[in-house]
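Narrative of activities, Objective 1.

The group set out to show that a structural description can be obtained from nothing but a protein's sequence at a throughput compatible with the screening campaign. Below is one input-output pair from the validation batch, recorded exactly as produced.
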Amino acid sequence: MNSTCEKRAGLIAGLQEARSRKDFEGILACADALKALLPSGELETAYREALPGVKHPTQWISRKRRQVKKRREKTAARIPTTLQPAAVDLYPRLAALRRCPDAQRSHQLELLSAEAGLSVRTLRRKLRAVDREGAAALNRKARTDKGISRTLPREAEQLFRALYTHKDTRHLAITDMVGRVREKFPELEASDATFYRIAKEIPQAARMTKQEWRARFEPSGRWEAPHPNHTWVFDMTIGDLFVWNRNPDERPYRPHLLAILDECTRSCLYARYTKEAHGTADLQSVLLRAILPKNGDFARDWRQCGAPLYLHCDNGKVQASDWLRTVCERIHTDLHLLRGVRHAAVRSPWQQGKIERFYRTVHEKFERQLGSCYCGNAPHNKPASHIPPEKGLRAWRDYPTLEALNYGLHCWLVGEYHQRRNRTIGLSPIEAWRLYAGDHVRVPEESYLRQTLMQRDQRQVRRGLLEFHGSTYYHQVLQGYEGLKLEVRWEPADLTKVLVLREDGSSLCWAQRQETRDAHSPKDLAELKQQRREKRETRKALEQVSETAKTLDSPTFEKTLEKLRKERKDAGIVDFPKGKRVRPADPDGEPSAEEIISVAGGGEADEDDFNLDILGVGLAARE
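Output recorded for this entry:
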């Protein structure tokens, strides 16, 4: 306790002395030391004691911090950015010498000469050059004949390159080639090291035939991972079926599928359908569930888990993102796992043949058996049982929901795909995993993994708040970081709080969202995207209505509307009922969308029977 009080008194005295000397750097150093020593409740009192006469000491220190930052930026702007490293170190010292009085300049030159290892005469010459030409005069002048040997004529170099790469002479030793060059140029003064340097600059491919190059550099045969969790391959595709989430305001859509496959055992670590094209948030969620042990209904039968050594993927935007590279570097540094991401060559889908074959199996063995929602992968390949979405609500009722589709996919993976024998490895994926996994399953702690896989962004602290995705986040600690840019980590499934990090990468605080700004703040990233999508659709619809109202008069508008109604009637499209044949409202609220849809279809639909029909394959395999 006494030591803390002594440190507090010493820092307060140091802050007062720095203020009297107008030493802003010292003021900030003492203020930061007090902030690290004292709790937040006592910090304001210490500031008021150290800065008597200042009405708002915290704001005063923040203002000094901004002034110091601007001063540093101005100082850095005075130094030209094109200076060489040695010139960057010497220029500020010469600039200080220029401001010294003539009586002290000789003494300062001697001190600088001893420190920089340059003579006083050289320093005087450089000082005159700076006065005459500016800071750029300190750079070393580039050679006009850079890249051209002074002792080796161009004809001799061309002869050596021809001997080194020609198919009739490239088998000779370099000493023999140098001897032939010296025979033709007797007065040559270049050493053998010059020829070895030229030989080192010539690429190996220049000395090979096309067949030799393919035999050495192109992969031959099928590459197999040596053990489970050595390499995971992942990719994205679009499903060959339609999904409807029982929302009358949304039309059916084709979902996107993201899956992670183990290259050694062909086991699917995790797979999931989503509504929109996959981004880094979806990859984060799938990676987290692939590495951690499964829970719920699949905890006993879906044993594949652990972190891999490598990830293999193509060159898409998500696969080549800075977020994925940063996550791999962090996990490799801490746990010696996820050593990096191996990207396939451009326009070389055969290098990801295993995941492509897995998607083909999903389309043929799982999606094809889901009934009328399966549309095939091409217009000419549509099955006869497919009912297009243009048929209206009667067709939509037979489409599965996204949640039911994902549950059915997981049941099919555990009950059928992992049990089927693979012809390449001669075992089923679950048998190969149990046989070869052994000590290669390493699962990081869940809390560490969740924090490492969080999405990253940079935000500036303004008025003690952080603005993020249209909302404001607050924590009392942020008031001491006014005007600074801090790293923000956030979870796509929970936007109520964000993790704020210091400049050195350590955790600072969890900032909570302020609900007073927006009553409809989204709870996760999916709801945020849905709100933005609804705003865009509403704005687009209003623009279309305004354009129609401008271009059509009343009789023409009525004719156009009647024509559209007739076309919908001829196509057999059933309009959604509005205020017709709706059951009486419950005392607790409005009727649900399922009740309205069942009335529109002419009868009540059993949701349980619907799920059993859609997911019959997966549930049968599950049993």
